[in-house]
Amino acid sequence: MTRDGRSLIAALAGIVGARHVRTALPERITYARDGLPTHRRVPGVVVLPGSRDEVIAIVRLLAALGVPFVPRGAGTGLSGGALADADAVLVVLTRLNRILRIDPRNHLAVVEPGVVNVRLSAAAAPDGLLYSPDPSSQTACTIGGNVAENAGGPHCLKYGVTATHVLALEVVLADGQVVELGSLSGEPWGPDLVGLFVGSEGNFGIATRITVRLLPIPRAVRTLLADFAALRTAGEAVSAVIASGIVPAALEMMDQSCIRAVEDSVYAAGYPRDAAAVLLLELDGAQESAVAADAETIAGILHAHGARSVTVAADAKQRERLWQGRKKAFGAMGRLSRDLVVQDAVVPRSALPDVLETIARIAGAYGLTVSNVFHAGDGNLHPNISFDGRVPGLKARVDEASGEIMAACIAAGGTITGEHGVGLDKLRYMPLLFDGDALAAMRAVRRVFDPEERVNPGKVVPVHACREWVGSVNAERGTRNARADVRSDFRVPTSALET
Amino acid sequence: MTERGGFEGLDSCVHCGFCLQACPTFLATGDEADSPRGRIELMRALEAGELAPNDPGVALHLDRCLGCRGCEPVCPSGVSYGRGLEASRALLAERRGTPPLVRAALAALTGTGGDMRATRLVYALARALRATGVPGKLAGWGRLRFAFGMLAATAPKDGGRRWRSVEVGGGRPRANLHRLPPPSMTSPVLLFRGCVMQGLFPHVHAATVRTLEVNGYAVRDAPGQVCCGALHAHAGLRGEARRLARANVAAFGAGGDADDAPPLIVVNSAGCGAMLKEYGHLLHDESDGVGQRFAARVRDVTELLAERGPRPGAPIDATVAYDPPCHLLHAQRIAAPPEQVLRAIPVLRVISTPDAAQCCGSAGLFTLVEPEMSRAVLQPKLASLAQARPQMIVTGNPGCVMQIGAGLAAAGSPIAVRHPVELLDESYRAAGYYA
Ligand SMILES: Cc1cc2nc3c(=O)[nH]c(=O)nc-3n(C[C@H](O)[C@H](O)[C@H](O)COP(=O)(O)OP(=O)(O)OC[C@H]3O[C@@H](n4cnc5c(N)ncnc54)[C@H](O)[C@@H]3O)c2cc1C
Ligand code: SF4
Ligand code: SF4
């Protein structure tokens, strides 16, 4: 009960209207997963604010009550980041979907966090501009989610990930304070707080207004599809392309299993089904002749490194088809089996050929199907393991194989996430990469924004692995107990569904 | 019916979210529970018995699904959402019964209350009321006034008063029009009449027959045919849908073992067409695949016309917006044929609004039983049509004609909505094909 005697739910309804507060179990169940369905947490309450002011009012209410909360965009995240526990409120931002301003003269746009990525580019197109970060999920994910995950995408190889394109943010901190980070001309002084917030995985507060840079739509574009008889040669060709000094706008790889899933789908793009792997490359620039010359050079390099064929998209339509196939590949994995886990490791590009072979070997040893579709130019791997979760013991095998794959990537000099974030899913790998002191430092930074660790609790930093964990638990015990009382009035009985 | 009744169609969903932005109800509320992905989650839990079919939290969001299947063609994993939905609605109907409003509407519109005479009377009264012109004047946003708008939208329209037929060749009408000799081969086809189409759109049936004949089809009747059962299946009344399906299979002749193939079945309502093409699934357990063979013979009228060109008619100088019915575009995946039909009309300018592929909110009885969501889904379409300013809207499904027509009338717009074959028919008439 709140101080004025109304329950939390009634208070939330007072802010957003009863129809935008979801309390029934079935409704909350629909929010129990994100794009990585192997994690499942049923939130206590779901609230859908319709404006920035409502977000602020909600956060202030929750601060007053000491209730934890989790921001959520479209729920396409691939690390379980947007899931909330039964004692937390899930704040869904899909209704904040207005593009507030497009400024074609200064090449920038101001958006609410729930704007779907691709809609911003569509809105900017009449002015000859686009929003460059293009995660494969761009027809579904929100810009707020992109900011929180520092999302990448095929074209980030040349133009940079989300962080490069965010100029300023309005953020509601956990205590309800509203702060402006950054400015249109860059941070006026001190540390790069925008840079810090981008990629914070919902741990630093809720972004309510986002100012991004727009880029001119490139005037000349060439899209190449190269087809390889072996995964290793495709991996080697990637390094050769980068070594040429030409920076492709995008350089993506797909293996045979993935090619076939896409070719069986409505997004069939005409990839050769018998190829062991294909590379999808794009070159762009302001000058037709320069881009054409680069395309020719790259085609030569690909041939020299074992490409069976290199085809160039004949027109915009074919280019779009080639890209749609790539971008929907993850969504097509359901054709292989009903369950799926995807990893997101980054390895040095030169290690790609070896790592790909190692992954295949590990999968083989566990008797699992792995499909690879990834941002090869960045060395950002996405091995997808398809399996049937109904088979007893299989999920455990998948987890073990995932762990081994991750360890192999780290051993090759890589890291555990390129763009999907740590969330819940990669908590277990953090100690493989960081020692207790490093984790404690991360936690300390987070506490600058959210001293109570009330926004998106339990994600990103595996708290139990921090060196100061034991001490802090004792120090916090008092506040935790106090909070439990407040929460108890809306704790919805967890059902057998929750895992 | 398959062993799992259609739920198996949901197995391949990987929760990627690519369907979210294709779903009109998600766009209206932003709520995952009103999205395809969220509903799949609910349906899986229903099948597993983890959620009860009479749980209001389940029913609310499954009831609010339009069944438009806009989520299917965007799904990379090929999830059969529509089948899962029907299986779920069957469970719901079993547990909580059918709402009286739905029962009454089904009985009145489809005659499946058992009394076909009553239904004929309903339609006769509706046509009489329509002829007075009063419903058009009363059209508005309230439940009843919207229904008046829907009825008014079904009236045959005389396009001639809205635009001129262009005369080609300076003064000598039709003299140098490209008139092909009638096709030498005539193929017999059987017309599926349906209930609403027969009751309120007999003029579309007439246009269908005439335009098909010009293109070399001999249209015959199949006596004994009944409602397709789509409204029943959507309401979860599978038993009734199957009964109707069996009756239709009998009326149109199961076809099969004879040497010459049985005639194709032509349908001019996208909703009925989608249902007839599902008979294979619906009558899955019936002997030797009768449903499957029936379904294989079903063609939308625009498919048949497009196959023959169709023959070009006389020019119509107008700008029309083509709005593909969900049950044509998403359920039957028919995109090009209707546009091909319209292209057979010289000079006619066909435009398409950016959100044309999105549902109008009609969805069978949906507009009646979920008026709030239905109107919320209709609004964006009306807004983009207001911006595009066509002289007429063309769409090949009775529900869409009524829904968009009523919405336009309520918004005070004079724009009419018609079936593509009506336009072709008008063009053919001007070309002298019927002389
Ligand atoms: C098919 C598919 C392809 C994908 N391809 C790519 C890819 O190419 N590159 C890539 O980087 N990712 C990719 N992803 C992952 C995912 O789409 C991105 O992480 C995306 O940025 C998530 O956006 P969302 O709106 O769905 O966020 P959600 O999943 O809802 O949330 C993600 C995280 O952001 C936080 N959050 C959301 N909104 C806010 C806000 N306004 N303020 C603060 N925190 C917030 C949440 O708490 C959560 O921790 C893909 C996912 C899928 C399903
Ligand atoms: S697009 Fe298909 S696989 Fe993806 S969430 Fe929707 S139904 Fe599931
Ligand atoms: S059928 Fe239509 S309304 Fe229903 S979930 Fe699919 S897209 Fe949404």
Structure description:
The complex is a heterodimer of chains A (499) and B (435). With 499 residues, chain A is α+β, with helices and mostly antiparallel strands. Among the domains of chain A are: 90 residues, Uridine Diphospho-n-acetylenolpyruvylglucosamine Reductase, domain 2 (2-Layer Sandwich), CATH 3.30.43; 118 residues, Uridine Diphospho-n-acetylenolpyruvylglucosamine Reductase, domain 3; 112 residues, Alpha-Beta Plaits, CATH 3.30.70. In chain A, 35% of the residues lie in helices and 18% in strands. The radius of gyration of chain A is 23 Å and the shape is globular. The N terminus and C terminus of chain A are likely disordered. Chain B has three domains: 90 residues, Fumarate Reductase Iron-sulfur Protein, Chain B, domain 2 (Orthogonal Bundle), CATH 1.10.1060; 161 residues, no CATH class; 127 residues. In chain B, 47% of the residues lie in helices and 7% in strands. Chain B has 22 helices and eight strands. In chain B, the strands form two sheets. A four-stranded parallel sheet of chain B has the order 2-1-3-4. In chain B, strands 6-5-7-8 form a four-stranded parallel sheet, with helices on both faces. In chain B, helix 21 links the parallel strand 7 and strand 8. In chain B, helix 5 packs across helix 6 and helix 16 crosses helix 18. Chain B starts with 23 loop residues before the first helix and ends with a helix. At the A-B interface, helix 2 of A face helix 2 and helix 3 of B.
Tell me briefly what this model is:
The complex is a heterodimer of chains A (499) and B (435). With 499 residues, chain A is of the alpha+beta class.
As a whole number of angstroms, the C-alpha radius of gyration of chain B is 21 Å
* Most extensive interface: A-B, 47 and 36 residues
Q: Main sheet of chain B, how many strands, which sense, barrel? A: 4 strands, parallel
Strand content of chain B: 5-15%
Strand count of chain A: 18
